[in-house]
Each structure stands twice: as C-alpha cells, then as structure tokens.
Design goal:
Number of strands of chain B: 0
Shape of chain B: globular
Membrane topology (chain B): Multi-pass membrane protein
Strand content of chain B: under 5%
Structural class of chain B: mainly alpha
Protein name (chain B): ABC transporter permease
Largest sheet of chain B: none
Number of domains of chain B: 2
Strand content of chain A: under 5%
GO molecular function, one term (chain B): dipeptide transmembrane transporter activity
Family (chain B): Belongs to the binding-protein-dependent transport system permease family.
Largest sheet of chain A: none
Radius of gyration of chain A: 22 Å
Order of helices and strands of chain A: HHHHHHHHHHHHH
Order of helices and strands of chain B: HHHHHHHHHHHHHH
CATH class of the largest domain in chain B: Mainly Alpha
Number of helices of chain B: 14
Distance between the termini of chain A: 23 Å
Main location (chain B): membrane
Structural class of chain A: mainly alpha
Number of strands of chain A: 0
Radius of gyration of chain B: 24 Å
CATH architecture of chain A: Orthogonal Bundle
CATH architecture of the largest domain in chain B: Orthogonal Bundle
Oligomer: heterodimer
Distance between the termini of chain B: 12 Å
Chain lengths: 307, 318
C-alpha cells in the first residue's frame, strides 16, 4: 500500500528537476525541494492542490464540522435554505449540509480505499508478470484481456447482482475490475526496467523475486504509477458515484453523494438546484485531481495514458 | 493484400474466441454463489424438498457445462430463457428496449463523432491558441462530471426552467421520426457532451503526435502548403488512430447509456438491466450483460479491422 501514497511517490520525481537548478546539492532535503516545487507550480496545479486539501480536511473533521448527526432527522421534508439549515433538508428531513460533509468522508473514503486496493492488486500482479515473464506473464495477461473485454460498469453490475451490494463487496469488485488497467501499465513500464543491467546484477547476486520486484523495479516506475493513481482515483470515484446513484453502491442511510442525488432528484423537477450540489462536489474534486495529475505529468513528462 | 486478409481473419477468429469466453464467464459467474438460484429464489422459506423441486424445474440438477451449452444454444437462436421476477420471455422484454437503446446511441454517435473529430483536429492545428485552451477546459470539465450531473443540469435548465424539452423521454415504436428525435434530445445531448470530450482530447493528442513525426517535417521543408500537408500526408496516417479513438469511446456510450436511461426514465436496455440488478433477476442481467459485452467486443473488433485496412504501410507493402 505504501507505493501508492502520494507523498512517498512524489518525492523522487520532485527531487530530480530541483537538482539541476542548484549546482552544489547532491541531495536537497526532501521537504525543501517539495516546497520549492510547490511555489513554482502553475496556478491550475495550486488550485487543484488547495481543493483536494479542503476535501481531505472536511473528510477527516466531518463530525466536528457538521452541525447535526449524519442520519439525524432534524426537520420537515424538503425545507428551504435557512440559517438553521444552510442547504435545507432532504427527503427524510435530514440536514443536507451535514450529509454533504459526511459524504466527503464516506464517498471519498471508500473511493480512496478502493483505489489503494486496486493498486496493490494491479501493481503486484503487473510486477510479477514483468519480473517472472514466460508462462506466468502469459496467463496473467490473458486473464486481464478477458476481464477487459467486458465493459466495466456492466461487469460490475453483473457481479453486484451475484454477490449483493455490501461495502466490502463493492470495494472488492471495483478494485479487481479496475486493477486490470493498473496491471497493464505496471507490466508495460516494468518490462523496460527488468531488462536493465542493474536488475541482472541483483539477480546474479542471488536476490529473490520479492527483492527484484520491490527494490529494483518498483522504485523506478513510481512516477508513472503516481500519475495513474490520480487518474484511476477519478475513474473509480465516478464509477462508485454512478453505482450509488443507480442505488447499487453505498447503501442508505450512509450519507453518500451519488445516492443523495438519487434520493432528492424529485426537487429538480421543481427547478431547485440543491439536489445537484453533491454531484457538483464530485465534479469539483475530479477536476482538481485531474489538474494535479496534469501538473505532475507536465513536470515528469512521463507516460501519458488517456483512458 | 493477402497479408491484410490473413490479419483480418485472425482478428475475427480472436474476436469470436473472446466472445465465447466472455459468454462463459457471464453464465458461469453465478456458480461463484454459495448457494444457487434456487436457494436465492426461496430465501428463508427454503426446505430441501422445495429447493430440489425448483432445481429440477430450472434444470439446475444438471452439471454447469451442460446448462451453459444449452443456454448458449438458446442465445444463438435468440432465446434467453425466462425472467425469474416476471416469468416472461426475456427476448420479449428485451426486443423493443434494445431498439430504443440503439436509436439513442446512434443519435448520440451521429452528432458527436463528426463534431469531436472536427474540434479535435482544429485544436491540434491551432495548438495553444485561445480556442485550444477554452476547448481544453471544456473537455476536462465534461469528463470530470458524473453523467447524471450533466443530465440533471440539462433537465433543470432546458426542461424545467425554459421548458423547451420534456424531462422524461417517452418513446414508442410507432412515433414519427421527428417526435422521437425530440423526445431523445436531452439524453442524446448528455451522451454527446461526454463522448465529444473524450474523443476530442484523444484526437488532439493523436494529431499533435503525428504532426511532430519526421515525414511531416519533411513535407513542411519541401514547402508544401499546410492544407496539402494535412490532407495528403497527415490524414492517411491519422485514420487508423482516429478510428481507434472513436470506437474506444463509443464504448463509453455503453456505460453512459445505463445511467442516462435511468435519469430520463428512457425505456431502454440499460434501465431494464438496472431494474433487474435491483430485483436480482439473474437471467435478465445475464442477457443484458451479454448484449452489452458483445456490442463492446464487436466495436473493438471493428476498430482493429479498420485500422488494419486503413494502414498505408500494410496496403502498399514494399
């Protein structure tokens, strides 16, 4: 799981360009180099970063920020915006602002968890395929080919019908299906590293498979993986929201942005924008993550993957 | 030319094999359940006798591979079996809905593909201009929004506030064409926005990539006018990647159509599938999955074949 946490993955990439600017430092301290990169970042990148930080803050401090309880019924149904309920109340008389805040925790939290699991599965199998090659690679690649031959949403719907809609199942199903994309990327970039001389040296030294995968190949493919993490996060976020919207993702009474739109959709036909706020929250976070990924890709001008 | 034929034949064979494997997965995934459909139907009321009776009725007492081949044989003849929830013929349930979904998808594709390619080529040719930047911002926002957000925004503004279009898309088979087009306007626009954004971004990247290749530089150095470079040198080599981009993104139609149909209560296959998932009506879900997956595989196959057939290097071998 550590290879996919943003801070860790960002470091090697952020170190590189800074080194070329300052003549003497063989090794600038990681935090100072990171700070310098931040100051130099394009405006769009900064905006993206600030937005993501706000979301993370909201998710962590949800119980403190929210005026009411997550599932607490505090008034009549569909009340207008007022000082007591800044965004009104929903179809069961719960405070919309409160549920928006808890939604940040639930929706984004589940998405983040799923993305991490996706990367653990995808990167591990991808590295394995690249490092071992031969039959293992063939087997894994053909399995992934077949899994990718079915449209993702359709496959997810089929599996959810069979296994039912609980959160662990949702996370597992989406992670397995999405990990096929990570597998392909990891395998492709890993293949280029495996043929390097220093990997050969490590093998001759008698290092095991785990060392070759984790200590020789993985550190050298972190930067494309990090960019992919951002893009995958967006896709998984949209997929889980779509499933929740269809009533098959996070289940009530959990506050979740996708299902909030579904629960209150009736208000839209009266010309009210409130039910769309959770959807707007989804869109804003996705755009912000995309902006950061664009900035990062521009920096490392590494591998670009548009789907 | 012979080589091209062989490659095309190989692709078709591979496509058929994929289709076969996928159908097996869709059918046999159910076997992963701890119980089976019989215990699923009966739930709490299951006794060994009733379970055995239902198994016999549904043919579940036979081994999985026999049931699979019987199912496949039926599917090939257009018979998907019966729905668990309503006990109606699935073929009957699907028929009209499939046509509705195809109609919606065709309208969306017909509008979005030319628009997206045109915009993408323009953005690539006038790279970093104001036009390019504004288009880039638009597409980034469009692909970052959930489909249901775009759909409800359109409903809010064009159906509720201005009242130009209906918010629910009611269609039936004997409506005149213009009425049908009017009814699917908002769902089609929703799908169009999403697809245009995807195709455009990828077309732009493809063209920019192509314009930096040596033979284009050569053409520029020869002093050819820009239009001639684009039409004679760039486009013949661009068809294959562009066709690929278009077809890959038409696959977005498949997942997009499910959500959009639910928002607009459009009587299509996507809505049927979601309803059946909620009811855990497995045979219907399997039938819908197979149709969507088959469409997807055929689209990808078409992309492969078109890019082989339009590849100048393969068509004019040295």
């Amino acid at each position: 799981m550590t290879e996919s946490t943003p801070t860790k993955a960002a470091d090697p990439a952020l170190d590189g360009p800074a080194d070329t600017l300052e003549p003497p430092p063989a090794r600038i301290h990681g935090w100072r180099a990171a700070w310098r990169e931040l100051v130099k970042a394009p405006l769009t990148g900064k905006i993206g970063l600030v937005i993501v930080l706000v979301y993370i803050f909201t998710a962590i401090f949800a119980p403190v920020l929210a005026p009411y309880g997550e599932t607490e019924v505090v008034g009549k149904q569909f009340q207008q915006w007022s000082s007591a309920h800044p965004l009104g109340t929903d179809n069961l008389g719960r405070d919309v602002l409160t549920r928006m805040i808890y939604g940040a925790r639930n929706t984004v939290g589940v998405t983040f968890l799923t993305t991490c699991l996706t990367f653990v599965i995808g990167a591990a199998t991808g590295l394995l395929a690249a490092a071992v090659g031969g039959w293992t690679d063939q087997m894994l690649s053909r399995i992934v080919d077949v899994l990718m031959a079915i449209p993702l949403l359709i496959f997810a719907l089929l599996l959810l019908t069979i296994f039912g809609t609980s959160i662990p199942m949702l996370v597992l199903i989406v992670a397995v299906l999405e990990s096929t994309r990570v597998f392909r990327l990891t395998r492709a970039v890993g293949m280029n590293i495996v043929v390097m001389d220093y990997v050969e040296v490590a093998k001759l030294r008698g290092e095991g498979l785990g060392w070759v995968m984790g200590r020789e190949v993985l550190p050298n493919i972190l930067s494309p993986l990090f960019a992919e993490f951002g893009l995958r996060f967006c896709f998984i976020f949209l997929l889980i929201s779509a499933l929740s919207f269809l009533g098959l993702g996070l289940q009530p009474p959990t506050a979740d942005w996708g299902s909030m739109v579904r629960e209150n959709a009736i208000l839209i036909t009266f010309g009210d924008f409130t039910p769309l706020l959770p959807a707007a929250a989804i869109a804003v976070l996705t755009i912000a993550v995309n902006l950061i990924v664009d900035w990062f890709l521009h920096k490392t001008s590494g591998l670009r993957d548009d789907h | 030319m012979n080589k091209v034929l062989v490659m095309v034949a190989q692709r078709i064979a591979l496509g058929l094999l994929t289709l076969f494997v996928v159908s097996a997965i869709i059918f046999l995934a159910v076997e992963l359940l701890p119980g089976d459909i019989a215990t699923e139907i009966l739930g709490q009321t299951a006794t060994p006798e009733t379970v055995a009776a239902i198994r016999r009725e549904l043919g579940l007492d036979q081994p999985a591979y026999i049931r699979y081949f019987e199912w496949l044989l039926g599917v090939v003849q257009g018979d998907f079996g019966r729905s668990l929830a309503t006990d109606r013929e699935i073929t009957e349930l699907i028929g009209a809905r499939l046509l509705n979904t195809l109609f919606l998808a065709l309208v969306a594709a017909a509008v979005s593909v030319p628009l997206a390619i045109g915009l993408g080529v323009m953005a690539a040719l006038y790279r970093n201009s104001t036009f390019d930047r504004s288009v880039n911002i638009f597409t980034l926002s469009a692909i970052s929004m959930p489909e249901f957000f775009i759909a409800y925004m359109l409903i809010l503004f064009f159906a509720v506030r201005i009242g130009w279009f209906p918010s629910l898309s009611k269609v039936d088979l004997d409506q005149p064409l213009f009425d049908r087009l009017y009814a699917v306007a908002l769902p089609a626009v929703t799908l169009t926005l999403v697809i245009v954004a995807h195709i455009m971004r990828m077309t732009r990247a493809t063209i920019i990539n192509l314009m930096s290749s040596p033979f284009i530089e050569m053409a520029t150095l020869k002093g050819l006018p820009p239009w001639r470079i684009v039409v004679r040198h760039a486009l013949p080599n661009a068809w294959a990647p562009i066709v690929n981009v278009v077809v890959i993104n038409l696959a977005y139609l498949i997942s997009g159509v499910v959500v959009v149909e639910v928002v607009f209560v459009y009587p299509g296959l996507g809505q049927l599938m979601v309803d059946s998932v909620v009811k855990r009506d497995l045979p219907v879900v399997q039938a819908c999955s197979l149709i969507f997956a088959a469409t997807y595989i055929v689209l990808n196959l078409t992309a492969d074949i078109l890019s082989i057939v339009s590849n100048p290097r393969l068509l004019h071998p040295r």
